[in-house]
Amino acid sequence: MRKPQRISRFAPSSRLVGMSALLAITLLSACSDASAGASGPPPPPGITDAPAESISTLPPVPIEQPSPLSNGLEVTAVSTEPLELVANGPGEIAGSGVSVTLDFVNKATTDISLDTLTVTAYYGDRLPAAPGAADTATPVSGSLAPGEHRQGAYVFQIPEDGRDSTIFEVGHTDSQNVIAVSR
What we know:
By secondary structure, this protein is mainly beta. Helices cover 13% and strands 37% of the residues. The protein has 1 helix and 13 strands, in the order H-E-E-E-E-E-E-E-E-E-E-E-E-E. The radius of gyration is 30 Å and the shape is globular. The chain starts with 13 loop residues before the first helix and ends with a strand. 20% of the residues are buried.
């Protein structure tokens, strides 16, 4: 006499496994068919509308000439100096560079945060300069009260033959303009 086979009610039968695989293949092919009919790539992430305010870069001013941002912050490049950068950590590059010391004066009637300043540099035919080693710069931060001033130094990697064509740009999130200083 044959012994009855015991099938666990939790064990999948081959028929159930086959049906599940067929359902998965059908769903995947339906999804790929729907995406194949779509025209073009999906829109890029981020802001897609035109900016609410236009930002303009003012013509470059020489060293030691104050230039105002539209939020009441006045910026003066006090000095620039060439220097040789030393690589002290991962990702840092040794070589030729330029340091700029900027003086910030709050001409507004309210405090201005210095934490949202951007300072960039270009040389030659608007080639962007990479920031120098973090330990060589002393950027400003914090809040600046009306009438107060604070200085900070910013360092950029700029080849020796690009030093004379360097332009520094300073912007602030609360300003509709960017100032430029030519070396």
